[in-house]
Amino acid sequence: MSGSTVEQAGPWVTFRELSGTVRLAMLGVFVNQFGFFLQAFLVLYLTHRGFSEQKALYAMAAYGLGAVIGLLFGGQLTDRVSPRTTIILSMAATTVLPLTITFMSSYPAIVAVVVPAGIMAQLYRPASSAILAALVPPARHVMAFSMNRIAMNLGVVFGPLAAGLLIAANLWDQLFWVTSVTSAIYALIAVFFLPKGRIGEESAASGGEAATERRSILRDGRYMVFLFAVLANALVYVQSYALLPLTLKDRGHSDQLFSLILTVSALVLISCELLITKITQTWQARFAAAAGLALLGIGMAAYGLPVGGLVVVFLGAAVVVFGQIIGGPSIFAYPAKVAPPGTIGRYMGGFFAAFGLGQALGPMLVAPAHQWFGESLWFAIGGLSLIAGLAALVGMRGAAVQPPTPDAATEPADSAPATA
After folding, report:
1. Where do runs of H (alpha helix) occur along 339-406?
2. C-alpha atoms less than 13 angstroms from C-alpha of 347 in its C-beta half-sphere
3. List of long-range contacts for 152-155, beta carbons under 8 Å, 24+ apart
4. Inter-helix orientation angle 124-135/107-122, to 10°
5. The domain containing residue 93 runs over which residues?
6. What does the DSSP assignment read for 370-381?
7. 383 and 257 Cβ atoms separated by less than 8 Å
8. 2 assigned to some structural domain
9. Which intervals hold domain Major facilitator superfamily (MFS) profile (predicted)?
10. For residue 323, is it within any domain?
11. Which residues contact 224 (CB under 8 A, 6 or more apart)?
């Protein structure tokens, strides 16, 4: 499973090679993720306001359905207009919509706002990934996408810490004020620093060919199997936000414990991912993805163990994180590797939409299942992740490590080959 010298460049070499535009794009992702509390804390926020756990889960599912629409539309908008315009539109709307939830007392009205909030909050994701894929050489994609995940998870570290302080002070509504401010900052970064126009724009004469390529995502059989793996992965992973806080609450733990688990998990990911990615980027993508999904399933199953208490919960969270570290960068980089010319936004949109659909269906399916099966449901969730790993093995065949480029011999010493 060894790869080229180019593929094995370390994180510092890759970071030095990134353009200022890419670094600013990652900064925007960090700022936005810092205040992205709507998904992570929606269940706890609604139960705090007196709504039932089932209603809170259904509201989260409504958010997820909106997210799927936003991700699909975001991919189309990215290819047709520009990533920059898509990000600005997404962040401008996210500056306003989550705030409106704090002024509403009717559950149907809250759900009616949660759906468009989900659409607009996720609209930017294909655009952000398209900028990264277009402005970073393919040989650096796995490491660059890993860095982008680090930027997101830095936000996950500091964001929940701030959220925990607000929750401890009983300032629940202020969670969404923070979301408004951080979204506005990301919008300003896009306005002043991200490139205008379509990235990798095709000539007008190729319009017919591009129309054919727009349908290719459905005709790409392996990619559809990969999207099934992504869907199943999301069904599993979303339980970290849907079922885990309820499980902890049912066991008598405080809401702040959930924030602590999110923070510790993100710290582990941040401190370890780039070092491990230097090795796993040399693996075949399907093997890295399958190994990561297997670990994700094992960690999720650990949450259902009747012994060990919080020690087992934190160990399970650690295994989940290492599953993300091993499989995540290869999975996130894969759409850019296989997308036909001019369709990166659509392939990214399909990828994020599959993940978003899983996030929407996850809480919806868990709400009744949790009533019937209780904490033993965690074992079924773990098994589903193993099925996702098998689908990744099948769907990601042919995603080989990039071959060495002619200037590989001139790479800095830090990019010397690593061993898997």
Report:
1. 344-373, 377-395
2. 25
3. 152/29, 152/30, 152/33, 153/33, 153/266, 153/269, 153/270, 153/273, 154/30, 154/33, 154/34, 154/266, 154/270, 155/29, 155/30, 155/31, 155/32, 155/33, 155/34, 155/35, 155/36
4. 10
5. 19-196+217-400
6. HHHHGGGHHHHH
7. no
8. no
9. 21-400
10. yes
11. 217, 218, 395
What global pTM score does this model have? 0.69
Where do the DSSP E strands lie in 8-167? none
Contact 128, 36 (CB under 8 A): no
Cβ atoms 199, 134 nearer than 8 A: yes
| Within-domain flag for 234 | yes
Q: Is 144 helix (H, G, I), strand (E, B) or coil?
A: helix
Q: How far apart are CA 386 and CA 269, in angstroms?
A: 21
Residue (of 128, 242, 261, 266) closest to 187 by Cα position? 128
Cα–Cα nearest to 284, from 390, 380, 400, 367: 400
pLDDT (tens digit per residue) in 126-169: 888 888 888 888 778 888 888 887 888 788 778 877 888 888 88
pLDDT in tens, 245-304: 888 887 878 777 887 888 788 788 888 888 888 888 888 889 999 999 999 999 999 988
CATH at 372: 1.20.1250.20
Counted domains in the chain: 1
Inter-helix orientation angle 255-280/37-48, to 10°: 160
Query: Could you tell me which residues come within 8 angstroms of residue 384 by beta carbon, excluding any fewer than 6 positions away?
Result: 232, 235, 236, 297
Confidence of residue 93 (pLDDT cuts 50, 70, 90): very high
Q: What's the full length of the chain, in residues?
A: 420
Q: CA-CA distance, 350 to 162, in Å (whole number)?
A: 32
Whether 202 is in a domain gets the answer no
Q: Which two tokens stand for residue 116?
A: 């468009």
Give the burial class of 419: count Cβ atoms within 10 A of its Cβ; 0-12 exposed, 13-18 middle, 19 or more buried.
exposed
Tokens coding 199 = 């990235």
